[in-house]
Design goal:
By secondary structure, this protein is mainly α. It is globular. The protein starts with a helix and ends with a helix.
Length: about 190
C-alpha cells in the first residue's frame, strides 16, 4: 500500500507542478507532512542532500523520500512517480510544439502560472527558513545563534548572487553548520 501511495503522490506532484523541482517544494512539503513520512527537519535535510548530489532536484528528493519511507522499492516508486508525468508531457508537447508555441491560450496560461509558481516558492521558502532558523528544540528568535544563522544565510545568499560556484557554497555552509553546532553546545 505504501508503495502505491508513494507512486501516486509523486505522480500527482510531477503532473501538477509547473516551474521545475523547486516549484514542487510546497506540494512535497504538504504531502510528506500529510502522510507523516518526514518531519520538517528531515525534509530540510533531504532538500540539502538533493541539492548537493548530481541530478535533477525533483528526482533526487523523490528518491530520498521514497528510500526513507519504504527502502529501495519506495525509492523506485517515488522516482518513477515523479518522472513519468514529465516524460509523457514532453512526448505530447514535442509532437505538438508548433501549435503550442503559437497558441494565445497556452501563452496566457504560462504567463499566469509564473507568478503563482513564485508565490508558492516564497511560501515554501518562508516555511523552510522558519524551520531552519527556529527549530522546535533549539534556540529562539532572540538568541545569539538565531542572529548568527541569519548572518550566515545572508552571506550565502550574497555568494549565490555573486555566482560563486555552488560546491564552494555547499562546503562553506557545511563548515559554518559544524561551527554552529559547536557554538550551540557552548551557549
Amino acid at each position: 500500500m505504501i508503495l502505491l501511495q508513494l507512486f501516486l503522490v509523486f505522480f500527482k506532484i510531477g503532473l501538477l507542478t509547473f516551474g521545475g523541482g523547486y516549484a514542487m517544494l510546497p506540494m512535497i512539503q504538504s504531502e510528506t507532512e500529510r502522510y507523516h513520512w518526514l518531519t520538517p527537519e528531515e525534509l530540510i535535510d533531504f532538500i540539502a542532500i538533493s541539492e548537493s548530489t548530481p541530478g535533477p532536484f525533483a528526482v533526487n528528493i523523490s528518491t530520498f523520500v521514497g528510500m526513507e519511507t519504504a527502502g529501495f522499492p519506495g525509492a523506485a516508486c517515488g522516482t518513477l512517480g515523479v518522472t513519468i508525468p514529465s516524460f509523457l508531457v514532453i512526448l505530447f508537447v514535442a509532437r505538438h510544439y508548433d501549435q503550442f508555441r503559437k497558441s494565445r491560450i497556452v501563452n496566457g496560461c504560462m504567463a499566469g502560472l509564473k507568478p503563482a509558481v513564485i508565490g508558492m516558492l516564497a511560501a515554501s521558502l518562508f516555511s523552510l527558513v522558519q524551520t531552519v532558523l527556529v527549530p522546535e528544540t533549539g534556540f529562539t528568535w532572540n538568541s545569539p545563534i538565531f542572529y548568527i544563522s541569519v548572518l550566515i544565510l545572508f552571506i550565502m545568499g550574497i555568494l549565490s548572487f555573486r555566482k560563486m560556484h555552488p560546491i564552494i557554497i555547499i562546503f562553506l555552509s557545511a563548515f559554518m553548520g559544524i561551527g554552529m553546532g559547536y557554538l550551540t553546545e557552548i551557549l
